[in-house]
Write a structure and sequence with these properties.
The chain is an alpha/beta fold. About 40% of the residues lie in helices and about 20% in strands. Pfam families: NMT1_3.
């Protein structure tokens, strides 16, 4: 090939590469963050797994941040400090509608993407405390869950409904675990996925008892708090522990309308298209479907999530259509 031919070939190649670059923009990953929960919780592991799976299948790179839980996440989401948030069903409902903890200011830009899995409340005490019923917690030093987390809020609501008044000791999950082992408090609680690592570790060092609600207590609590439902922690979930009746709610992912429709769509699509893979490493997600997610949503969906659910044929109630998608 002559020098002129090489020059012409080089010129053609350069022009072709430039044209291709101009015609096809690079699909650079969008970096976004998600506020989750204490690292000692099962939720932190689960959300780390789902973030890894979504990041591998969508043009986004999700970084996981340890937080105190749902309440803190909702506040930080509203401030724009995080892009996505682990939220519980009670928190999402109240935040959007300006009720309960959010009575002084609704977060009307909150939008739901999906529900990850149901979560169960754990109320545990040291076996050597002698406490076997919820009523016996009156006046006792008890940690209601991580400061700012959904478990703390649910504990207070349920105990108020049942007229139970412990001496609340507010601290992080790690500090609460240490306080139980040291005997400084009688017990602690958390809204999470069984088995909760921190509970397992404490149980090995200082045996625990998971308190069980009576049928009457379940009825009283769910009548006052309709976003909660009866749940069971199976026998043997924690070594030598009997079955315990408790309460549960769904935990999911929320954003605000500031998250682009395309990003919201890609996150939702990647999640549901890989739900079986997630279930292999994060058991609580097994059995979850887009239909279950929509059926249990009371807060408007993100426009991108709405597009995905409609695309796969899920019937979306009008109440879940956000204003920007109408």
């Amino acid at each position: 090939m002559t020098r002129n031919s090489l020059t012409r070939a080089a010129t053609w190649l350069s022009s072709s590469v430039l044209a291709a670059a101009l015609a096809t923009p690079a699909l650079a990953d969008e970096a976004i963050s998600i506020g989750v929960a204490p690292a000692a919780s099962g939720w932190y592991f689960g959300y780390s797994e789902l973030s890894r799976i979504i990041s591998a299948d969508a043009p986004v790179e999700i970084s996981v941040r340890e937080t105190g839980g749902s309440r803190e996440n909702t506040i930080r989401l509203n401030r724009g400090e995080i892009d996505l948030a682990l939220v519980d069903a009670p928190g999402a409902y109240e935040a959007y509608n300006g009720e309960g903890r959010y009575a002084n200011g609704a977060i009307d830009q909150m939008r739901m993407l999906l529900w990850v899995a149901p979560s169960t409340m754990h109320w545990a005490v040291r076996q050597d405390s002698g406490i076997e019923t919820f009523e016996a917690l009156d006046g006792e030093r008890f940690n209601p869950s991580s400061i700012g987390g959904g478990g703390e809020y649910i504990t207070e609501l349920v105990f108020d409904a049942l007229d139970i008044t412990p001496d609340y000791q507010r601290m992080s999950m790690g500090d609460a675990a240490d306080a139980v082992v040291d005997g400084r408090i009688v017990g602690f609680s958390y809204n999470g996925i069984a088995p909760i690592p921190a509970f397992t570790e404490v149980h090995s060092a200082r045996p625990l008892r998971i308190l069980s609600l009576s049928d009457a207590q379940v009825e009283t609590a769910t009548e006052a708090l309709p976003f909660l439902s009866r749940a069971v922690i199976p026998a043997g979930t924690y070594r030598d522990m009997e079955e315990a009746t408790t309460l549960g709610s769904y935990i999911g992912i929320a954003a605000t309308e500031a998250l682009s429709e395309e990003t919201g769509y890609e996150i939702t699509r990647a999640y549901w298209e890989n739900i079986e893979r997630l279930g292999q490493t994060f058991g609580p997600a097994e059995g979850m479907t887009p239909e279950i997610a929509v059926e249990n949503t009371t807060t408007p969906l993100h426009a991108g999530a709405l597009r995905y659910y409609r695309e796969v044929g899920v019937d979306v109630p009008d109440a879940l259509v956000p204003p920007e998608a109408e």
